[in-house]
Write a structure and sequence with these properties.
The protein is mostly beta strands and about 140 residues long. The chain contains two helices and eleven strands; from the N terminus they run βββαβββββββαβ.
């Protein structure tokens, strides 16, 4: 079993909180800045790891906003109260995969992250889903 560090995060109003169990061998964390207009307008930078685990808590399980755009292959999860864009979730082969917006981390310093740029504009749907299955966090649960 891998040794994991718990990273805590929350939206501004704390309606949505989470714990991300991250393999300690995988520090510093790479935060990826997506080049699409949606992510740029939200100022989002993401991370995920196939050996990490995400546990999400919502005060009221129905009190989230989901948004799909583009290829409609992922749900972007927002807090309907403070507007925090928290994660993107994608269902593949009965498994929920996630990519987490690092801007909501509460107990991780910027020097524990490495910045990178991504550009998926030329990626087709099949390639996009294969990349998510390979790289996104596959252990997602709502507590």
């Amino acid at each position: 079993m891998m040794n994991k560090r718990i990273i805590k995060g929350a939206c501004h109003c704390r309606n949505i909180t989470y714990q991300l169990a991250w393999p300690v061998e995988e520090f510093p964390i790479t935060k990826r800045e997506c080049s699409c207009t949606f992510c740029r307008k939200h100022g989002a930078s993401y991370t995920s790891h196939p050996d990490s685990e995400l546990t999400i808590k919502v005060r009221d399980k129905d009190d989230i906003t989901r948004y799909r755009f583009g290829h409609e292959t992922a749900d972007f999860i927002f807090c309907p109260h403070c507007g925090g864009m928290m994660f993107a979730l994608c269902e593949l082969d009965s498994t929920t995969y996630a990519v987490i917006n690092v801007n909501h981390f509460e107990n991780l310093n910027q020097d524990e992250m490495i910045h990178s740029q991504t550009d998926f504009d030329e990626e087709d749907i099949e390639g996009r889903l294969a990349r998510r299955k390979r790289n996104w966090t596959p252990a997602v649960k709502f507590a």
